[in-house]
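Handout for the seminar on molecular recognition.
Each group receives one record of this type.
Step one: identify the two inputs.
Step two: read the structure output and locate the region that could contact manganese (II) ion.
Step three: write two sentences on what you found, then compare them with the reference statements printed after the record.
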Amino acid sequence: METQTVSTMPPQNAWLAGDLEIVPLSKHIGAEVKGVDLTNISDDQFEAIHEAWLKHLVLVFRDQDLSDPALISFSARFGELDLAPLDANGRSNAPAHREITVISNVKGSDGKPIGALGAGEAVWHIDMSYNPVPPKGSALYALEVPPAGGETGFLSCYAAFEGLPAELKDRVVSLAIKHDATLNSAGIQRSHLDAVSDLRTSPGAWHPAVHIHPETNRPAIYLGRRKHAYIEGLQVEESERLLDAIWEAGTREEFGWHHSWRKGDLVLWDNRCAMHRRNPFDGSNRRVMHRTQIKGSKPQH
Ligand code: OGA
Ligand code: MN
């Protein structure tokens, strides 16, 4: 896939949540929260952040200075945290703080990557939807960023559902999709699982293709990853055709926006109603991000 263009909108429609300024970043998704130091927030500020998160799906906080414990304690205000998943080789990459996942292309002194996802493109996905109970949100904090590339795209699964052609919308609400467990979002085969030979029997978790967000009660399309997805009960060819149609209609650029990172950015996304992807970058540059994930609930229709 080609690198997608980075869109920005002038700050408009800003609103105040308590003493915080919330500046929307695109039509359907994303807002910057101004005037907050995430190492020191009051309960009222947390309530305002939570309200803005449900409304805008993805929040950007710039110029933060967060240690791993500070990232963990801010994230934990939203709920219990997951422990970091093992990487594609079955290793944990941040043993000091089990809640932290390192996302990085940098190689350590042993020549092995210190984190996940490398420098290539990460395709559109929902985090860990190959599990029966995926996280409700993820917080990604930038410690080192490359001078170009590596932007992260987000799209609204509410807008994607609402924007489907009527016929497809009617059809999709009754479908269940299997979310493939064998590949990670960089397309790398997880070493403890066999490569897929039959989409109908390969490992993964079943979820409704449209679910109701448990906090906003809004319907959202729930797609996970395209590759090796399978629609329950269909012939493989029919499932592939229908999935292609849903993905094409559901991932239009107008539903999303791309974030250009600066060191010190913390981006918090709602994994129940936002998908994300990442542009590739020049692997001779360093990109180091630390991520936490907040435990979620089973997607329900
Ligand atoms: C993730 C992820 C994208 C990025 O951390 O889950 O997909 O831009 N990251 O690093
Ligand atoms: Mn991800």
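Reference statements: The mean pLDDT is 93. Helices lie at 43-56, 68-75, 157-162, 166-172, 236-250.
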